[in-house]
Amino acid sequence: MPKNNLPVVILVRPQLGQNIGAVARAMSNFGLKELRIVAPRDGWPNARAAETASGGEGIIHAATIFADFDAATADIHVAYATTARPRDMEKRVADPGAALPELKTQVDAGRRVALVFGPERTGLENEEIVRCDALMTIPTAPENSSLNIAQSAVVVFYEWWKQAQLPAVARELPEIAPKEDWQGLFTQLEAYLDEVNYYRVADKKIIMWQNLQNLLLRGAWSAQEVRSVRGMLRSIWERKRKGEG
Amino acid sequence: MPKNNLPVVILVRPQLGQNIGAVARAMSNFGLKELRIVAPRDGWPNARAAETASGGEGIIHAATIFADFDAATADIHVAYATTARPRDMEKRVADPGAALPELKTQVDAGRRVALVFGPERTGLENEEIVRCDALMTIPTAPENSSLNIAQSAVVVFYEWWKQAQLPAVARELPEIAPKEDWQGLFTQLEAYLDEVNYYRVADKKIIMWQNLQNLLLRGAWSAQEVRSVRGMLRSIWERKRKGEG
Fold first, then answer.
1. A139 and B161: CB-CB below 8 Å?
2. What's the pLDDT score for residue B37?
3. Mind listing the pLDDT tens digit for each residue in B66-102?
4. Which of A54, A55, A141 lies at the smallest CB-CB distance from B28?
5. Above pLDDT 70, what percent of chain B?
6. Given 3-state DSSP classes, what are the helix, strand and coil percentages for chain B, each rounded to the nearest 5?
7. pLDDT the model gives residue A1
C-alpha cells in the first residue's frame, strides 16, 4: 500500500488541451496528484494543456500516457467512471456525494482507486464502462444536463476533497485483484467462448459479453480468487478439448 | 412570496464575457434562472457571454444589469457571498456543503436569497462583503487555492441543486427586511455619525463602520424593526440638534 494513497485521475482519449489543463488545475485545487492520459487526440506533450493548468503545471508535466484503457488501469483495484447519461448496464450508479465516501473507505484501506473520465463528445465506450466498478452521474437540472469535462471534474474532485478532510477509516477491506488480473481472466474467457461459438448469433455477443464481465467483476475477487477461477476455467476447457479429440 | 422562489445569482463587476457565459451555463445545469450583473466591465450585451453559455443562453438574454451592489440587492433578504480568501470580518463563514442546507431553509420560507460572486481578479470590496449576511469559502488543497469564478459557481450551484431535490421545509422563519431597508438605515446612520465626527480619526472609520454594519445586520430585523430603529435614531438625532440649537 502506497504511503500517501490518493485516487488516480484517468482521462480517456481527451480532445482539447485546455480541458486537460482545466482538469489538472482542478486536481491541484482538491489535492490530487497523479494524472494518466489514454491516447490524447492531439498527442503529447500538449502546450495548451500546460498553459491552462494554472497551478496544476506540475501535474501536467508528470502525467503519464497510455495506449489504451486496459493499460492505464492495470494496477487499479477499483475504477469509478463519471458518465453523463445513464448506461443500460448492470452497474452501480451513484451521485458523487454518495460515491465519494465509499471511495474514501477504499483508499483508506490501501486500494488503488481511479476516477475515470471519457472523451468530451462521446464519453467512454461501453467496453470501457464494463471494466469499471461503479458509475457516477452528477445530478443536474433536466433542462440542461450537459456538463463539460472541466465542470464534472471540479464537482467530483471537490467531493473527494471533502472526504479527504475526514480522518482515515480504520476498517480493513478484503484484498481485491488489480485490473490487469481481471483483464487476463476476461481475455482467457473470451477466447474460450469465441472458440466454442458460445454466442451463436454475433449480434448477441456484445450485450451478453458485457453482462458476463459485469457479473464477474461484481464479485470483487482477490488476485488469488481470480487465479483460481482462471485455473478452473482452464481445466474445464482442457477436459472439453480432450473429450473432442 | 414568489411561487417558484429560487436563489438569485449576482455577478459583481465581472470582467470576462466567457466567465459570465460559464456561470449562466452552470446555472442552467443546476436549475437556477435569475442572473443579475453589476456593472459588467465590457458593457452589455456581451456576445462572448451568450456564445459560451451553452444551454444558458436564455439566462444571459434575461439577465438584468445594475449600476451598483446596493441596487442589485435591494429586494434581497439574505445574501451569501462566495469569497476566495477569508476576510477579517465578523461574518459567519461556512463551506457550501454546510451553507446551502441553511440557504434552502430560507428559500423554503419565502425569503429572497442571493448568491453573490465578485470580480475575477480582486473579489468583492469589503463594503460589499459587509452588506452580505454570510460568506462561503470553497474548501481547497493548500497548494492551490485559486478557483476561477466558473469553477466556484459550479461547486456552489451543484450544492444548491442537491438541496433543491429535498422536500421543502415546512418551518416558518421570521420576516426579514429586504436589503433596501437596511441600505436606508445605514445611509441614515452613516450621515449622523459623520456629522458628529464619531470616528475622530478618519483612518479608523473604515473598520469601525464595517463592524457596526456587521453587528446591526446580524440582528436579522424585520422591515418593521428596521423602521423602528431608524425612528429611534432620528429621535435621538433631533433631540441632540435641539440641545445644540
1. yes
2. 98
3. 999 999 999 999 999 999 876 777 788 889 999 999 9
4. A141
5. 95
6. 45, 10, 40
7. 41
Number of continuous H segments (helices) and E segments (strands) in chain A = 10, 7
Tell whether B18 is within 8 A of chain A (Cβ).
no
Cα A219 to Cα A73, A87, A182, B53: the distances in Å are 18, 20, 11, 44
DSSP for A108-164, please give it. Answer: HTT--EEEEE--TTT---HHHHHTSSEEE-----TT-----HHHHHHHHHHHHHHHH
A1/B136: higher pLDDT:
B136
- pTM for the complete prediction? 0.85
* ipTM for the whole complex: 0.78
> ∠ CA B233-B239-B245 to the nearest 5 degrees?
135
For residue B245, what is the enclosing H or E element? Answer: none
Q: Cβ distance B26 to B153 under 8 Å?
A: yes
d(CA B2, CA A245): 80
Using a CB–CB cutoff of 8 Å, tell me whether B105 touches chain A.
no
B95 vs A contacts (CB less than 8 Å):
162
Counted residue by residue, chain A has a size of: 245
Q: Do A162 and B138 touch (CB under 8 A)?
A: no
Nearest CA in chain B to A26: B147
